[in-house]
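It would be a great kindness if you could assist me with a short task in structural biology. A protein sequence and the structure tokens that stand for its backbone fold form the material at issue. I should value your view on which stretches of the chain appear to form regular backbone elements. The record follows directly beneath this note.
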Amino acid sequence: MVDDGDAPSRYALSFTSGALLAREAEIAAGLYLREHDWTRARRLIRDDNLLQTRVASSSARLAREVVQRLAVLSDQELELLLEAAPSERRLLLWVAACRRYALIGDFAEEVVRERFLRLTPTLEPERFDVFLREKSLWHPELAALAASTTAKLRQNVFRMLADASLLADGVIQRALPTERLLDLLRARRTSDDTRFLPLAPAPAPAPGDRP
């Protein structure tokens, strides 16, 4: 949250792929944990065409996108990404997208999770458009979007939700993270990133319980 009088940061809107990039993420995470250098990992992905794209420009673009998303994860989270079952990996990649792109994170927290908690789990595409209009009051970059761009952003976000098994047939699905994933998301210093998941909040400690 910004202080009164401060303009909010512009939303990054460069998520050109609506996929969670699970296969690409596994490759990139393994390289990073070997090299511990995202610049080098990205260069290796691009130069060796490890993502197996047919066009060099596509390889560079996809490498940049997957690295930007994974760079917001801790080393522990990246290790979990490689060990995780597919369902757990998809949830972690959804959280990565939410961290990388504040627009996705705000939609996940303020619309998806809020509707889930209020027991109104339907999520029509129009909800995304309403969200953008409301946010445009503080983010003029959203008011300037062409209709085609809005449609593409909506399509990408809804595809990510479906890929993460958080949306099916227009209905929000409860997230089923493992305890180890929950522990990592709640261990962040800046925020409890379970806020990005349609999930009931953790119960408050009982009086007298140790923190």
Summary: The chain has two domains: 19-71, 85-201. The first helix runs from residue 22 to 35.
